[in-house]
Design goal:
The complex is a heterodimer of chains A (975) and B (271). Chain A is α/β, with parallel strands linked by helices and 975 residues long. Chain A folds into four domains: 297 residues, Alpha-Beta Plaits; 206 residues, 3-Layer(aba) Sandwich (Rossmann fold), CATH 3.40.50; 153 residues, Dimethylsulfoxide Reductase, domain 2, CATH 3.40.228.10; 118 residues, Barwin-like endoglucanases. Chain A contains 35 helices and 42 strands. In chain A, strands 7-6-18-17-16-8-9 form a seven-stranded mixed beta sheet, sandwiched between helices. Chain A has a seven-stranded mixed beta sheet with strand order 28-22-27-24-26-25-29. A four-stranded parallel beta sheet of chain A has the order 13-12-11-14. Chain A is globular and about 85 Å long. The termini of chain A are close together. By secondary structure, chain B is α+β, with helices and mostly antiparallel strands. Chain B has three domains: 65 residues, no CATH class; 127 residues, no CATH class; 31 residues, no CATH class. Chain B is built from eleven helices and five strands. A four-stranded mixed beta sheet of chain B has the order 2-1-4-3, with helices on one face. Classes of the chains: A alpha/beta (975), B alpha+beta (271). Chains A and B meet through strand 2 and helix 32 of A and helix 7, strand 5 and helix 8 of B.
Chain lengths: 975, 271
Amino acid sequence: MDSYPDTWRSLEDLEGTMPEGVGDDDPATFPRRRFLALLAASAAFTGLAGCRWPEQKIAPYAHRPQGTEPGVPRHFATSMDFAGAARPLLVTCLDGRPIKIEGNPGHPAARGASDIFAQASLLELYEPDRSREPRHRGAPAAWEDFDAFVAEALAARSRDVGRGLVVLAEPNTSPTTARLRALFARRFPRATWIDWDPASREAERAGARMVFGPKAPRALYDLARVRVLVSIESDLFSGHPDALRHTRDWADAREPGPNAPPRLYALESAYSLTGTMADERLPLRPAEVEAAMLALLARIAAARGISLATEAGTATPSHEIERIARDLLDAGPQGLVVAGPTMPPAVHAAIAAINHALGSDATCCRWIADPQAAETANAWERLDAARAAGPVECVLVLGGNPAYDGPADRDLAGMIRSARASIRLGLHHDETSELCQWHAPRAHFLESWGDATGWDGSRCAVQPMIAPLYEGRTVDEFLARVLGLEKTSGHELVQETWGRPEEWTEWLRTGFVAAPDAPRSVPAPDPAGMAEAVGLLARASAGASALELLFRPDGKVHDGRFGNNPWLQELPDPLTKLTWGNAAFVDPTTAAREKLRTGDMIELAAGRGRVTLPVYIAPGQAEGTVIVPLGYGRTMPGAAVKDIGWNAYPLRTSAAPWRANSATMRRVGGRYRFACTADHFLIDELGRKEAQRRGKTLVREATYARFAAEPASVAAPKHAPKQVALWKPFEHDGHRWAMTIDLNRCNGCAACVLACQAENNVPIVGPDQVRRGREMHWLRIDRLYRGDVANPKVRHQPMTCLHCENAPCEQVCPVAATVHSREGVNEMVYNRCIGTRYCSNNCPVKVRRFNYYDYYGRLDEIEKMRMNPEVSVRARGVMEKCSLCIQRIQQARIAARREGRTLAGADILPACAQACPARAIQFGDLSIEGDDFVRRFTGPRAYEILEELNLKARVRYLARLENPHPDTTREADTR
Amino acid sequence: MVEVVERGRSVLKGFLDVNVVLSCTPGFFCARLSTLRRCEVRHPGPTGTGPCELSVDHGCLSKWTNRIKYGAAVVLLGAPVYLVALVWYGGSPMTLDVGYAPIQPVPFSHEVHAGQLGLDCRYCHSSVERSAHAGIPPTSTCMNCHASIGTTVETLDLVRTSFAEGTPIPWIKVHDLPDYAYFDHSAHVAAGVGCASCHGRVDQMGVVTQVQPLSMGWCLDCHRDPTPHLRPPEAVTRMDWVPTDGWMSLGSGQASHPGVFASTDCSTCHR
């Protein structure tokens, strides 16, 4: 495997320096004497506490609801309305409380998969910092007083037909809200309703409007039919409302088989998950992307004989763009170009033109009416007009958090503060609530009745899994009261919108009704719009500044709304592996020029905004860019949110939401130490060298061409050593559980990490502990860079317990706390563990996690409700690690026995495999000869990592395959 | 610390080995010894500054006291044995848990309901075949009969209140496994383990009493060889079932009971 280029985990790793904080344990702060004293005291107190058995009470139902059985989980379909579309979900409830969220297996977009936001929304439900009661100027108040105030404030506005009334709403896709909003508009015709979403896809929509007119339809991508896909700064595989479908379709299309694999090009400034899946990636600044788009459009238009009606874009394209253009033209109607929401409208308009010229708008897209097309247009003009027309008397803020995330040039906070009446409905008493006179708690979607629209137009149900924990109300319920409707409960409101009582139960059961198949009427781009887009692109690419400051919604806290969600905060970012905070991501060239190192503090200035924050050098980022993820640096009080990261919203204006051209960067004094997990689990210099040597062989890859020619060579080690076992071979009995992780499918989205965390009660430890390398995730995703710093390749490798038959951990445990089951699961027996940590030291892949503290020691009653009762909650001093979701294996086994069936591997789905949108993780039984799973496990792409250690791992990886353009140097093959 | 001088000769430096057990605070020691018979104490300095010289005639205390040290040795050697025995037997679930019979808030008698009336266990514990938990019945199950039977009985007041107000009856748990042990009723019922194997003859209990230790060793005894505790699935809830000849002829060992999977892997019970 020495043929792979250098593989590295971080810039420190590449340079060969030890990262900060390695081996930085703190035994000195905890003297031995004190330890012994505590030991004695705890023994004494344990003795005292043990004098009486606790008396346990059982409180059965007085009237058990139909269909409930104590201890039997029930599953309900619902959906999470988030970032422009419903995410169809299936929620597991046990004894009346939701404990796990999965994707709705019936919905064609989800197919049982979910993303990190859906997984983490469970924690949000039970979050202790959620708003619990209405507040008047910060002081707790009664719902009656709140209702009275709202009624009075709006009665005054009603007399004035809504003049001076502004609604700032978090956009949603609910037909019920849309219906109530129409009623609202009729009642308050002069009121201004602004949908404010800091991470909106408005640019995409504006681009479509440019070429398709005001009723621009929405394109749904059918990646299964694509042969050449060009991603322009797109978020196809993460962040896009339809990312789950894209991920699955693309992974299926890339499965090696008789058909030629599709190819993916990525043109982007920062590395995105889509970029990590690309066969060829070009790091380009947005200005360069615009130029490239222009060149690509001109090239394709010329080839197809389409006149652009403008002189612009006749410059010769670079050879990369030329190659992409030729590849697209070869693919014809199977060549698709897509762009992300941070690209300006002109790029989207150009793309529509390119896809139309290629014919892929008919073959690779489906077009539906955009349910939100009209609502989002010209929002700022309307707000300006309303503010100019007279004083803003009353502001309703429904969800969102405009005081924190509003654009710097609009002063939404000032408008709220100066209004005579300001009313807020929010999940938290946050920055916006601080400014409002009245705040009322909003119900979480898991405790709400509602409806939502999927990206594909499917009508999704939102039903409560639990009664509101804090008497919150939904936006619909709030609006119904404001409008003085007869029916004000969410249940009745949704039923009324639904309108088909006979299909109601079935709708709730399946969770959605598919959108009617729209005819594939393909809109033709308007030439005038195209010309306008070309002109804009030409002007934009000409007038670019030296340093482009870019904003992106954060991959974890999104626009900041998930800030107080510690699962997301502690999740290592798929690319940077940062936890607990953001940074100013600077490209390596600019950093070298400015002599910046990761951790140096800089001041960014744009317009009147100034932010001081630390630098993180991001390999593969386009030269001349600084990228700041939004959503951090919040001031709301909360266990996980306050003062985490830096707030970039003050730099952002409504005119240029994603890019500040005239930004400046200035170095200021000071350093910051990130909580970054990229280099964790190194022990010392020797270990670092060995890890670097081994790192090359961990991810194996080849081109499709080579795989087709000599399949056996892809995954096989170059020098297979002769292995002699020191121990008796493992004797198995019955099932032989095993797992495969397909590196060709995994795009590093990390849904598996959070699914595992939710399923297995994995604790969170906080930034300080992460800095010490004490994060607890049972499943981590190693992100390996390969090659040059300016544009390295990124390889994701989910790493979990390998369940080695010849397990090094078992051989060193002095108390047999980790043992092998007959079915091949490496088991952890918490009660036996005395915390020597020998096992973790001896684990070659460092997947064992130690409870340094009693992380679950101080949970309140509400927080405890989210625990999965099927998994022990571990105490301090105990080692833990992946159990292959042993609880699910046992549950499936018991269910099979109960029903007189034989247990099959297909009955069992570990949490990670269930969540994975790419189906990269597969679980199965090796004892069934000829099973699909066994073929995959022993197939040509399957390999065992570190096979020289003779681990006989039950978790195997499938090698990644690349499909570079034949013209590019066949690096992977010739090296 | 004292030095013992006997007839002018130093015989011991340190603690006395006879007659008196010493704790050597000078003042106390001097004063105390000087009151004893046939002792001579020489104080080199003022009283209480020690070390003192002490002359002891044998017989300062009675001679039998010399045997105390043997007794002390026996106690010292015996104490660990006693302590181990105390913890081993005294702390075992056999001693601590078996016989636990808390007084319940409603004096429900299994003897009457399961024994005399012959109600099947599953009438009340209805989820035993489908869930890990056998389930304590909701109050409405009680009221199926007690809506018309014993409507004025005082002991049922709590049941009626619970039914009317929807508040649960706070039963006290008798068979309490630790939270890290994942016992599943449905798995055992499906395999043919009788209720009585773990819960005893509940049909003869006025007050439900724990009859088995429910310890890990006790679980493992059965998991290693479950066959003596198996019965035909239809007889699982029968309290008075005895193996028939036909059943006995199936033989022992798990192989003779194909539906049974009594593993001793840790993860069978611990997750």
